[in-house]
Design a protein that fits this description.
It is built from three helices and 14 strands. The chain is mainly β and 319 residues long. Keywords: Secreted.
Length: 319
């Protein structure tokens, strides 16, 4: 007789990955229970990195923040190799791996609060055929009209004791407790003047007139191979229900961390200049705020990293 349910909290990859396609009795998979739900938080396609399995193995597999490096963790590259040579584990090494347990524990605490009549956050996840890249693009980021599960579409699920979903599902979380929050997406349309970039653009959202709105940070990663004149994306979460429904404006403050290699001719790193035409921020409930101005420039003119530019986003449509 099968067990009713097994929940895998970032199932271990070292020593188990080679058994993924053989020797089923040595690993967790969907044949072990009527329902196998799995949370992946420290996975990696590389053998030397990540303590959790990269491949989906359950009836439903949740990948918070893509299932790899978790926000708030300073993960070490090649963590499996490092732990072998150091003959031990540190908080830094296992931060993302332990996050699965912390997320699941919080989901149980929130469920108890809701059953007691409270309005606690649910870890809402989205089924995404195109995996994490499609989730960041917003392909699977539908509008949810309210917090009741009855209003969720078939492509929307949640993890916890009252798990719901099927297949591979994605969500974003906060980088510290409470991890569950209102999920946000940033969409930036770059100008045709913008050349190749390599680095991370950090967008801090805030509103001084709404003290309940906890500042949220969304990061967008640029890769040198990306073509110019493109649209880039980022996802994040802010504190649950801290964005007022009547909030018509928010401020976006930009910082840029350049990781481009040095020029072939000199030892200096090329000065990054970002040009964009439009930025949109939207939440999981269908609200959106926009800023539109062609060839808006974000320039690191004095070697500065933080607070390069601040703009106001409003609910007004672009002309």
């Amino acid at each position: 007789h099968l067990l009713g349910r097994i929940t895998g909290l970032d199932p271990a990859s070292p020593l188990f990955r080679n058994n993924y396609l053989r020797e089923n009795h040595k690993k967790l998979d969907r044949s072990d229970a009527k329902l196998v739900d799995v949370i992946h938080t420290d996975s990696s396609p590389f053998l030397t990195d990540g303590f959790g399995l990269y491949e989906p193995i359950g009836h439903v597999d949740f990948y918070p923040n893509g299932g790899q490096d978790q926000p708030g963790c300073n993960d070490v590259a090649d963590s499996v190799v490092v732990s072998h040579f150091e003959r031990g584990l540190s908080k830094e090494l296992v931060c993302s791996h332990v996050r699965a347990f912390l997320l699941f524990r919080e989901s149980l605490q929130n469920l108890l609060e809701r059953r007691g009549g409270g309005d606690a956050c649910e870890f809402v996840a989205y089924n995404c055929a195109g995996e994490m890249a499609a989730f960041e693009r917003g392909d699977c980021f539908p509008q949810i009209r309210n917090g009741s599960a009855g209003k969720y579409g078939s492509d929307v699920g949640r993890f916890g004791e009252d798990v719901r979903g099927e297949g591979v599902m994605f969500l974003s979380t906060r980088g510290e407790s409470p991890f569950c929050g209102t999920q946000l997406q940033a969409i930036m349309k770059l100008s045709h003047k913008c050349g190749p970039l390599k680095g991370i653009l950090q967008i801090q959202l805030s509103n001084k007139n709404h003290t309940t709105f906890t500042p949220a940070i969304i990061q967008i990663q640029f890769r040198e191979t990306d073509a110019p004149s493109r649209t880039v994306y980022g996802i994040a979460s802010t504190n649950y229900k801290t964005i007022p429904e009547n909030m018509t404006k928010m401020q976006a403050k930009f910082s840029y961390f350049n990781s481009a290699s040095k020029s072939n001719q000199t030892d200096e790193i090329d000065e990054p200049v970002i040009y964009f035409d439009k930025i949109t921020v939207r939440d999981m409930y269908g609200n959106r705020w926009l800023y539109c101005q062609k060839n808006t420039q974000i320039l690191d003119s004095n070697g500065q990293i933080y607070n390069l530019l601040t703009v106001s986003l409003t609910k007004n449509s672009c002309s």
